[in-house]
Specification:
Blueprint: E1 10-12, E2 17-22, E3 25-30, E4 35-39, H1 41-52, H2 58-68, H3 73-89, E5 94-96
Antiparallel strand pairs: 1-5, 2-3, 3-4
Helix pairs in contact: 2-3
């Protein structure tokens, strides 16, 4: 994608994504292209937060992550937005501004 995702953006999960939690990693299958993806434990936690609070601005997800992990707000925001951008690029979620 050519645009930048911001903390005011909201996301939704598209149809056609299958999920399986294996130990502490989430495996995603995009049925539209038949490709598997995996998320590490922090990526898995972000996915869980996105699913638990659909259409919440990403700022709310960031706030929760900052409560749960010892990291700087700048680093956490950068990593969250990078992951969301990658998930959007692979059509595993849709960003709604």
């Amino acid at each position: 994608m050519d645009r930048t995702v911001s903390l005011t953006a909201r996301v939704r999960m598209p149809d056609g994504i299958l999920l399986q939690l294996l130990q502490d990693e989430l495996i995603l299958l995009n049925l539209s292209n038949g490709t598997y993806y995996s998320l590490n434990p922090i990526g898995t936690r972000i996915w869980q937060l996105l699913q638990a609070t659909p259409m919440q601005p990403l700022q709310g997800i960031l706030d929760t992550l900052l409560e749960e992990y010892e990291t700087s707000a700048d680093r956490c925001a950068h990593d969250l937005l990078a992951l969301v951008s990658q998930l959007e690029e692979h059509r595993l979620l849709e960003v709604v501004d």
